[in-house]
Amino acid sequence: xxxxxxxxxxxxxxxxxxxxxxxxxxxxxxxxxxxxxxxxxxxxxxxxxxxxxxxxxxxxxxxxxxxxxxxxxxxxxxxxxxxxxxxxxxxxxxxxxxxxxxxxxxxxxxxxxxxxxxxxxxxxxxxxxxxxxxxxxxxxxxxxxxxxxxxxxxxxxxxxxxxxxxxxxxxxxxxxxxxxxxxxxxxxxxxxxxxxxxxxxxxxxxxxxxxxxxxxxxxxxxxxxxxxxxxxxxxxxxxxxxxxxxxxxxxxxxxxxxxxxxxxxxxxxxxxxxxxxxxxxxxxxxxxxxxxxxxxxxxxxxxxxxxxxxxxxxxxxxxxxxxxxxxxxxxxxxxxxxxxxxxxxxxxxxxxxxxxxxxxxxxxxxxxxxxxxxxxxxxxxxxxxxxxxxxxxxx
Length: 395
Ligand code: ADP
Ligand code: MG
What we know:
This protein has 16 helices and 17 strands. By secondary structure, it is α/β, with parallel strands linked by helices. The protein has 2 domains: about 5-170, Phosphoglycerate kinase, N-terminal domain (Rossmann fold), CATH 3.40.50.1260; about 180-380, 3-Layer(aba) Sandwich (Rossmann fold), CATH 3.40.50. The strands form 4 sheets. It has a 6-stranded parallel beta sheet, with helices on both faces. A 6-stranded parallel beta sheet has the order 11-10-9-15-16-17, sandwiched between helices. A 3-stranded antiparallel beta sheet has the order 13-12-14. Helix 9 (about 200-210) links the parallel strand 9 (about 190-195) and strand 10.
């Protein structure tokens, strides 16, 4: 068990500088925040610390800046956080150094400061020891509330953490671990897996751990075509993953009877036209979504799960394009139906969360919406999570 912020006596927060690693890596369009689920996920931790009189210092990365470019400033996030909390949030345009130190020293007890993008320094991703020291010199207590970056060995998630005597988990991180551990070790049966998206490689580790426990695995998205080819279907010009073809064949031979593949497809050739095809996909055509019959089959599997567990990662098609979004929308809606009927449902992955939104499914119609994509899959694969390993354990 991790030691969490509620395991420390309240008095220990009063007037203390608490650095909270959050994941505010969200989409910003023309300087405005579009989707703020990750910001809202951090509210319980932020407010817990504010109420106890801590100086709350928030640190995050945003995007993949090569240098200090204004497209990757966290300034709009400070504005959004201010709106959400209805209280003042300070922002400073750097994340280390004497000016940041001075600003923190002047903060009132119970106030909030958001630091500028950690990745403005390449040292962050290189886990540089000096940079780590500069981060850890900012505060007395470290809190990790960013599950979605905990698979990374970066300065703010790993290098700096070991310099703190007190290293706690925030509420969001704790909740993520609870739900994802449940999926990994103890899913309530029947256990249905729904996997889509584009890269088989990202999903292999998780599938190897989960397939033995799963009752059904529904596969859509681009990953489905490699499975279909292995079963002898023609897949035309659809995405095919040569590198993991052998793994796919092995998975089919071991778990074939649990695996449900698409029976029809929305296909397109070069000329922007699209149509439905059942069975083999001819040369010159590529599959971009599951077809209607497959949607109905997947929906009845998901909606018919009963009181078990469903984990969904990866859209069923190229849902960003409206002609290829129907399959994903139908899966999202049946996830909501399964939830209302009593199943425990988990959705992970940035694109999958965007797909839920697009489908009009509310966050309250899912048992747990994981902020992590990569991190969730790594955790399910049993990989090391440096950001979690660096935290204190409670006895
Ligand atoms: P998540 O972010 O939820 O983990 P992934 O990143 O694994 O999901 O996959 C999402 C991407 O997969 C989307 O950009 C989507 O367009 C793409 N995709 C899904 N199906 C297909 C397909 N049939 N052909 C091409 N791209 C696809
Ligand atoms: Mg993605």
